């Protein structure tokens, strides 16, 4: 209910209550007063009337002249003279002939008493008072005076009417006052309320205009101060939240917080990615509903039940990929003492574990690759040592083979050092401006001798202008030479190798194209792995180490470039180096 109506209702209730109290107390008192007045009137009048009762000395009849005069002068007063037998001798308002025996009327039986009752004769409430008329010590008659009570009711009605009018006047005043209050007080309050609503809806920077100097003005100023404070607090909260969100989003570890019912309270982007969560709004949803990874839900469950932190490593096998995760679960108190939630931290160890495996494999491969020529050298030298009488021709054969094995050893070591040098630089090679065209031409010149042995043609295609890149000339020369060596090594004698240098789509490009056997598509990615060879024996015979292409890839990665291969079995191969200019 609006304030003004409450005020109005209060006023109406107060006025009605006041009216009721006045009616009950004042009307009662007035009625008592009027009764007293009537009683007094009859008490005073009756002796007067009694004194006027006179009987004719001869006939003994009542003399009525005086009585009639009194009755005329006071028409309200009813005068009745009754003889001791109850016969009515005189009545100012009625025909005595029609009146019954009045000897048994209470006021006649008990003279001097005041009696009020309904008069059947006059059909109204009357107040009666009778006195004995004594003559010569004998009761000669009863003089009775009666006054109608309707005077009282008429006065009471008039009084009630004025009370009612006062109440109505009061109500009218209350209504007027309510309107005045509405105009003076509630209207500005309503305006303030509307503006406060706008303030809540619109931008927080909006403020109420202070157009008054009164309490309403003070209220507006207080609301503005409160809005300022709220804005500051909201800003602090928003900033905290932004910081928290940024920290969570920037974390490489996945983080999930759940309450004691495993309902998700917080989850960051990394965690969503790691558990492949696609649900837009997982907040408040059960963890088990959001992920089918039982290791995670079980870890959360036991952490909540036991309240003990736990760490585990889990491997998730997807359709194409394998994911290795370090899963740490730590309990936290959430709100009340006995309520425990759980924070899960997921760390992606896949790459780390893969690198560890690569390293292990590499060590095993290196050992194996070194062991083969070393065993050969050891065998030849041992045989020669044990047989000093060995034929010279055989000794020469053994020495040649041992020498080839040492060359192989040094080739492997050379390539391993190349790899180590590039990896040790870790992207921080000593770079300088290099003309890739001139560098490639130089590599081609060095490869000519090997090509001539195999009766192969090398052709250079490069523009007249220099192709300038920033790089380590030694490392880049190793990369181009490795590609040329392979093209010469694996192509049939008499075939041709083209070396093409150009600028293409903003990159410096070197292509080595041969007419060799080509590389099957299944092996095209693998040829860049360390020690990978399509035909191990053939590679070994040709002096290959299986490291040439992985060196090329590492060199290019260290320069922010890449190497790619396009080949078809029987159609030759084309290796392309791309470098940023
Ligand atoms: P390798 O020392 O054995 O040549 P690489 O890493 O240079 O080692 O090459 C890996 C393998 O890729 C080679 O053993 C060979 O089987 C294949 N390969 C490389 N270049 C060519 C090419 N131009 N034509 C055909 N096969 C090649």
Radius of gyration: 64 Å
CATH fold-level topology of the largest domain: Heat Shock Protein 90
Strand content: 15-25%
Bound compounds, each kind once, are:
adenosine-5'-diphosphate
Q: Please identify the top-level CATH class of the largest domain.
A: Alpha Beta
Rounded to the nearest angstrom, the distance between the terminal CA atoms is: 79 Å
Structure characterization notes:
With 581 residues, the chain is of the alpha+beta class. The protein folds into five domains: 2-155, Beta-Lactamase, CATH 3.30.450.20; 202-249, no CATH class; 251-348, Beta-Lactamase; 354-424, Helix Hairpins; 426-580, Heat Shock Protein 90 (2-Layer Sandwich). Helices cover 51% and strands 22% of the residues. A five-stranded antiparallel beta sheet has the order 4-3-7-6-5. Strands 9-8-12-11-10 form a five-stranded antiparallel beta sheet, with helices on both faces. The protein has a five-stranded mixed beta sheet with strand order 14-16-17-19-18, with helices on one face. A hairpin with a 4-residue loop joins strand 10 and strand 11 (322-333). Helix 11 packs parallel to helix 12 (473-490) and helix 12 packs antiparallel against helix 14 (548-558). The mean pLDDT is 89. The chain binds adenosine-5'-diphosphate (ADP). Adenosine-5'-diphosphate (ADP) binds next to helix 12 and helix 14. Adenosine-5'-diphosphate is lined by residues 482, 486-487, 490, 514, 516-517, 519, 527, 532-535, 539, 544-550, 573.
